[in-house]
Design goal:
The chain is α+β, with helices and mostly antiparallel strands. It has helices at 3-7, 56-68, 126-130, 136-147, and strands at 13-21, 27-32, 43-44, 47-49, 72-74, 80-85, 96-106, 118-124. The N and C termini lie far apart (42 Å).
Amino acid sequence: MDESEVNNLPRVVLVLRACILNNSNSILLVKRSKYDRYAAGKWELPGGKLKMSQDPFQALYEEVEQETGLEIVVKYDLVYFNGHLNQSSSFYNGAPYVVIVVACSFTGSKEVELSHEHDEFVWVTPQKALDMDIKDEDSNAIRSFKAKGIL
């Protein structure tokens, strides 16, 4: 690949999310701040965007710990993938938007401690999560996990 081809590669927005399971087989959802400019008040799985020069798994661990205070362990390397071309008027307009969700457990007996990015958290059954006002990419991941017997 020459330099002109490299310069033509798209900038990709990579979002990493954790479907965190507890001992009761409930999953953790966090509610986006009502002041957030994107999807305010929606429930979602914890996680965030990969930054330049960041290892994807390390990014996932850091985002989850920042948002929830929990340290996670990945149970399955890749269980859900989704992508689309971002057509919004945001900073990411025209960029491929890729979401990867992995099934995780958490270590220790620490309680959830939310960051300023979220207003609430709840542990719910997968079916209850699907009945909530949850982001589409996360509900699709939960359905996929259920179909694969992970949840």
